[in-house]
Amino acid sequence: MNKDIAILKVEGLTVYQGSYLAVRDVSFELLPGTDTAIVGPNGAGKSTLVKAVLDLIPRSAGMIEILGRPIARLGRLRHLLGYMPQNFIFDRSFPISVSELVGLGWEKEAKKGDLFFSRLWRQDHEKSAAVEEALRRTDAYHLQYQAIGTLSGGQLKRVLLAYCLVMRRKLLVLDEAFAGVDVQGSADFYALLNELKREEGWTVLQVSHDIDMVNRHCDRVLCLNQSIVCTGKPEIALSPQNLLATYGPGFSRYQHQH
What we know:
Layout: E1 8-17, E2 20-30, E3 35-39, H1 46-53, E4 61-66, E5 69-70, E6 81-84, H2 98-103, H3 116-137, H4 153-165, E7 171-175, H5 183-200, E8 203-207, H6 211-217, E9 220-225, E10 227-232, H7 234-237, H8 240-247
Family: Belongs to the ABC transporter superfamily.
InterPro entries: AAA+_ATPase, ABC_transporter-like_ATP-bd, Metal_Ion_Import_ABC, P-loop_NTPase
Protein name: Metal ABC transporter ATP-binding protein
């Protein structure tokens, strides 16, 4: 893909939550292979923004294009998007294994001319191989037969990443992917994410509260408080002046010690 063609383009995005203006006139674009973080205080509209970008909630105004197409006309290209929500809410008693959950992320069209039973066998074989490979690459293969309701927070994050990995993706959207994971777990997950991003050529858009990790690992930062306060490389966007303008007085930046 041409490196100058945006994977995601957003222009004038405005979103209301009821009568509350959650996101106002936001515009930005993501180039292939970049890792962009959205930072800002609680209630700034970060999660609302990424949900609107993925067309999961309605927008009041604005244009969204993914892979050069309006989001509403993305069609089968939607499988090129991966999404990890902040809270993966499910019934922990539901009897589904890790491998079954990851397999739900696999979708492939049959080749024309395939006989019915040949197609079924081929698809099942390819799916099983893809699930196994995704779990191995996320260090979650040993969990394949485990019920998802028994997973720890960190284990579940890796399994959800395997779900995104089981099919080829172009854009990976993470909404507070490290919520509920301790500092070391977050660092390990970031290392894994960076490795997979390089190997897969993912473009990443992530919401994060961890300014230190964003500064270390992301290419670009959007500082958001309903509208974009500033944007740029981490060393520019995360300057004390810009953080003060985004978060307001009293913001304290925590530095990891490892």
